Amino acid sequence: MDSALIIEKSIFIVVIFAVTMLMAMYSTWAERKVAAFLQDRVGPNRAGWGGLLQPLADGLKLFAKEEFEPNTPNKFLFFVGPGVAMATALITSAVIPWGDKLEIFGRTVILQATDIDVSLLYIFGVISVGVYGIMIGGWASNNKFSLMGAVRAASQMVSYEVAMGLSIIALLMMSGSLSLRAITEQQHGMDWNVFYQPVGFLIFLICAFAETNRTPFDLAECESELIGGYHTEYSSMKMGFYLFAEYANMFISSTILAVLYFGGYNYPGMDWVGIHWGTNIATLIGIAVLFVKICAFIFFYMWVRWTIPRFRYDQLMNLGWKILIPLSIINIMITGICILAFK
Amino acid sequence: MATSIQNISLSGKKKQVSHKEMTFWERLYLVAIIKGLLITIKHFFRRKATIHYPEQVREFSPVYRGKHTLKRDEQGRENCTACGLCALTCPAEAITMKAAERKPGEEHLYREEKYAEIYEINMLRCIFCGLCEEACPKDAIYMTISKELVPAQYDREDFIYGKDKLVMPLEVAMANTKNLN
Ligand code: SF4
Ligand code: SF4
């Protein structure tokens, strides 16, 4: 491995980190704006133009807040919880192909931190570790509400991960590869997976809502019953970490949705652009297209949040075990039959 | 026909509750979600109801109880005689005052022989009930004429309004007198 590669990757990783942070920050702003607009209000508009500096003000406020620690025997775990949540939210971005390749100074730069063969498995692994952040934090808080939130989060994640995995299997049967880059390249142009796997996409979408703890599946936080759920006892920047991790998670899961089902950086007419305007331009447009798709999904997350009320706990479990899992198994069978029949 | 209680609908909106089985599409829930999403997205583009307060002020009703004003009469003299009735009637005990005697040569400043040297209302205590206005025998305190709200402040001290903020400015009194004539 030559040193140029290491420098290139380091720069790329820092950029991704910064972009993820920025997206998470501005998701909080967007969330408040979208909520306001859907409710006929205008939302934050005092800090900066259109309230654009609001995330900074929020961050500053969280930094300045008093750090409160509950009387818990698990001081260390209380401290570790938000860290785990944040770390797992950030490291998934390593395997996502953000764009095709760029040619800078005669080098071909692949816009992906690392292209491991099992990137999908890696993402699933990391996401399942993510629930530990919530569980550890909720348990170490020494508070009944936090514990309930943590227990709910854990059982919800476990049940929805099954359906999510099964819906992905149908996709894998088509793609034949676990590498996200390979999956993206198969969806060249307009050949997106969502057209072949509409049911799989729907299941994956619903599970993604559950995995990111967003309404209508936000039973782990559930302000009206559990105060704040697992982060009831948290304050100051630890609280900030949890909230930040949540928004980073939303960004990452939107990215995964866009990459797996909506063609990632592919867009119709990309070959024409590549031939006439050069690879670099085509790639840059590709990155922009990917971000448009991601933002559209983030907006969809928010739109749903401010439309649908929260599920009841038994409804949530019913939906997961009795509907989504059988449905995804049927989906796998139908996909198998179609592959046999048409290939 | 005998009208039983079941058939009466005072609001005209009475509906029989139905316990019919949900159809497949209703049970699927997705259709309902999409309908809901369409409703909320319509609101996204709707005109916003917000009034951007400090820049944009809503029209006050003629009887709106806003910031207090200590009135001056047609000759620009303060009406208040520091009788203390407003302080006595105030349920929130927001008003304090200190009376002083009018000196010769101050007749153009104060209408009565006794006047309020210090007159303070603590706006954090005030509940804007308007009882002070009702109690005043000298027509001195009004909440309707300032057409102003008490704005937010960072310090508690700033909410204690003295005579500098409460007494009606002389120019306003002069303008009022001009309008009378
Ligand atoms: S409005 Fe009511 S509460 Fe306020 S100062 Fe007058 S009497 Fe007291
Ligand atoms: S404002 Fe009216 S009631 Fe209050 S002290 Fe002055 S004259 Fe008396």
UniProtKB/TrEMBL annotation, chain A:
The keyword Cell division does not apply. One of its GO terms (cellular component) is plasma membrane. One of its GO terms (molecular function) is NADH dehydrogenase activity. Signal peptide: none annotated. It is found in: Cell membrane; Membrane. It comes from the Bacteria. Pfam families: NADHdh. It is a multi-pass membrane protein. The chain crosses the membrane at residues 6-26, 76-99, 119-141, 162-182, 194-210, 241-261, 281-303, 323-342. It is an enzyme of class 7 (translocase). Its EC number is 7.1.1.-. Its main location: membrane. The keyword Ion transport does not apply. InterPro entries: NADH_UbQ_OxRdtase_su1/FPO, NADH_UbQ_OxRdtase_su1_CS. GO terms for biological process: aerobic respiration. It catalyses: a quinone + NADH + 5 H(+)(in) = a quinol + NAD(+) + 4 H(+)(out). Keywords: Cell membrane, Membrane, NAD, Quinone, Translocase, Transmembrane, Transmembrane helix, Ubiquinone. Belongs to the complex I subunit 1 family. NDH-1 shuttles electrons from NADH, via FMN and iron-sulfur (Fe-S) centers, to quinones in the respiratory chain. The immediate electron acceptor for the enzyme in this species is believed to be ubiquinone. Couples the redox reaction to proton translocation (for every two electrons transferred, four hydrogen ions are translocated across the cytoplasmic membrane), and thus conserves the redox energy in a proton gradient. This subunit may bind ubiquinone. NDH-1 is composed of 14 different subunits. Subunits NuoA, H, J, K, L, M, N constitute the membrane sector of the complex. PANTHER family: NADH DEHYDROGENASE SUBUNIT 1, NADH-UBIQUINONE OXIDOREDUCTASE CHAIN 1. HAMAP family: NDH1_NuoH. NCBIfam families: PRK06076.1-2. This is NADH-quinone oxidoreductase subunit H. It comes from Flavobacterium fontis.
UniProtKB/TrEMBL annotation, chain B:
It catalyses: a quinone + NADH + 5 H(+)(in) = a quinol + NAD(+) + 4 H(+)(out). InterPro entries: 4Fe4S_Fe-S-bd, 4Fe4S_Fe_S_CS, NADH_quinone_OxRdtase_chainI. NDH-1 shuttles electrons from NADH, via FMN and iron-sulfur (Fe-S) centers, to quinones in the respiratory chain. The immediate electron acceptor for the enzyme in this species is believed to be ubiquinone. Couples the redox reaction to proton translocation (for every two electrons transferred, four hydrogen ions are translocated across the cytoplasmic membrane), and thus conserves the redox energy in a proton gradient. Its EC number is 7.1.1.-. Belongs to the complex I 23 kDa subunit family. This is NADH-quinone oxidoreductase subunit I. Residues 71-100, 117-146 form the 4Fe-4S ferredoxin-type domain. Keywords: 4Fe-4S, Cell membrane, Iron, Iron-sulfur, Membrane, Metal-binding, NAD, Quinone, Repeat, Translocase, Ubiquinone. One of its GO terms (biological process) is aerobic respiration. SUPFAM superfamilies: 4Fe-4S ferredoxins. It is an enzyme of class 7 (translocase). [4Fe-4S] cluster 1 binds at residues 80, 83, 86, 136. One of its GO terms (molecular function) is 4 iron, 4 sulfur cluster binding. Pfam families: Fer4_7. Its cofactor is [4Fe-4S] cluster. NDH-1 is composed of 14 different subunits. Subunits NuoA, H, J, K, L, M, N constitute the membrane sector of the complex.
